[in-house]
Specification:
This protein is of the alpha/beta class. The chain has one domain: Rossmann fold, CATH 3.40.50. The radius of gyration is 18 Å and the shape is globular. Strands 3-2-1-4-5-6-7 form a seven-stranded parallel sheet, with helices on both faces. It contains eight helices and seven strands.
Length: 262
């Protein structure tokens, strides 16, 4: 298995990962745990018991928080306080991966969708913004290199009928990342940030898209065909691409990118 860090380095590599209980998030967590110097904090609605045993086998340090990112402010405050407890000299690197996301309503928006809209925007956009703010505030004086990956989507860059909640939240995530990149570029030891589209992946979200109402979601058949023709990447393949992109020497030069780009 490919190692994403130098195994000879005695210092810890800290990664904070949201949405780690299933799909690509779980696959990323498993890959990140495959290093004995990893310090991994996973934040998800549900914990993944298999991660605990896997981390123990690999010699990695793993903490799992169960949290509802639809209510991101208390989670961000908890993260801020948790990070402030660490001795920064323990870490060779610090990374935040905002991976958690939901598809929202499939179909034109109506006033009856207001609660789902709030939840979708909170999880897809507000939570990454709040967690990024907490991460940057707590690690401002750290000497270790800092990186942030916001998992975006091609649909943040291409409009799709019947998916305005998802498209708008991911477009907002892209532009937020551009703003943070400009802010961090002017600071000593500023963080590098990328809003990264991971490609089309065989996850529960794709299942939701295929189950949409064709009359409300006209592109449903396109997603059915992606599955039928084997065009979907496995969560493991997508996770490996994201982590490989994270370790590219030019990471952060373009704050909005696609993991499939060479």
């Amino acid at each position: 298995m490919k190692r994403f860090f130098d195994r000879m380095h005695p210092m810890k590599h800290l990664t904070i990962l949201t949405g780690a209980s299933r799909g690509m998030g779980l696959a990323m967590a498993q890959l990140l745990c495959a290093h004995e110097h990893a310090q991994l904090l996973c934040i998800s609605r549900q914990s993944a018991p298999e991660l605990d045993s896997w981390a123990a086998q690999q010699g990695a340090s793993l903490v799992q928080w169960r949290a509802d990112l639809a209510q991101p402010i208390p989670v961000a405050q908890k993260l801020l306080e948790w990070l402030q407890q660490w001795d920064p000299s323990e870490f060779a690197s610090a990374t935040l991966i905002n991976n958690a996301g939901v598809i929202g309503h499939l179909g034109p928006m109506t006033p009856q969708n207001d609660q789902l809209l709030q939840q979708t925007l909170a999880i897809n956009l507000e939570a990454p913004m709040q967690l990024t703010a907490a991460f940057l505030t707590a690690t401002r004086a750290w000497a270790a290199p800092k990186k942030i990956v916001n998992i975006s989507s091609g649909l943040g860059r291409r409009a799709m009928a019947g998916s305005s909640m998802y498209c708008a939240s991911k477009a907002g995530l892209d532009h937020y990342s551009r703003c943070v990149a400009l802010e961090e570029a002017s600071l000593p030891n500023g963080a590098r940030i990328v809003s990264l589209a991971p490609g089309v992946i065989d996850t529960d979200m794709q299942s939701d898209l295929r189950a949409g109402d064709q009359s409300q979601f006209p592109e449903r058949e396109n997603f059915v065909n992606l599955k039928a023709t084997g065009a979907l990447a496995s969560p493991q393949e997508a996770a490996a691409r994201v982590l490989a992109f994270l370790n590219r020497p030019d990471f952060g030069q373009q704050p909005v990118a696609d993991s499939r780009d060479a």
